[in-house]
């Protein structure tokens, strides 16, 4: 394992480095299938974009963005984040992308999600962690529910993508409910 930050059974989370901004990483965000339900893939991603993203977003104290890596191979398979960390209201937004499609449906997202939620509640002392996803993104909705999040509402026609407006389904989890099995 290369500089693990949080360690699970099959995956570990580590900081993203400049060397991660390689061809595979850029390809994830240029891949229509990987980005079908997120806000990426509207403009091409170039090396300069990725470096700007690294400097302004990944290094920001308002965001905790980590690489998801396979413990056996050290392969960087995706990213997971607590973004828009609000220290006053003790909340943050959960985000995840599994860029390596060979890991889809294999539990890496759930394991990474449990690790970062636990870190958010126990180490960052957050009260609430939330996320939103397009109405059609059943994979993310199932992940949110499997992590204990509750559906909290819907923002109607809040995202324009692929020529149509879609609703955003909002989920949230309170610290007191984390790990209760509800």
UniProtKB/TrEMBL annotation:
Pfam families linked: Acetyltransf_3
Keyword hit for Transport: no
UniProt GO molecular function: acyltransferase activity, transferring groups other than amino-acyl groups
Superkingdom of origin: Bacteria
Gene3D superfamilies associated with the record: 3.40.630.30
Ranges for domain N-acetyltransferase: 11-172
Keywords annotated in UniProt: Transferase
Name of the molecule in the record: GNAT family N-acetyltransferase
């Amino acid at each position: 394992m290369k500089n693990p930050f949080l360690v699970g059974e099959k995956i570990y989370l580590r900081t993203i480095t400049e060397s991660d901004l390689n061809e595979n990483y850029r390809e994830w965000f240029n891949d229509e299938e990987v980005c079908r339900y997120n806000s990426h893939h509207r403009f091409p991603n170039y090396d300069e974009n990725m470096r700007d993203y690294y400097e302004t977003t990944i290094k920001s104290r308002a965001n905790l963005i980590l690489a998801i890596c396979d413990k056996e191979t050290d392969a960087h398979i995706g990213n997971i984040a607590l973004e828009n960390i609000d220290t006053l209201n003790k909340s943050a937004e959960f985000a995840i992308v599994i860029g390596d499609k060979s890991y889809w449906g294999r539990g890496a997202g759930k394991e990474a999600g449990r690790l970062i939620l636990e870190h958010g509640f126990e180490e960052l002392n957050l009260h609430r962690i939330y996320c939103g996803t397009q109405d059609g993104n059943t994979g993310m909705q199932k992940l949110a529910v499997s992590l204990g999040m509750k559906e909290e509402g819907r923002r109607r026609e809040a995202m324009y993508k692929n020529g149509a407006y879609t609703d955003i389904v909002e989920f949230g989890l309170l610290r007191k409910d984390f790990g209760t099995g509800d």
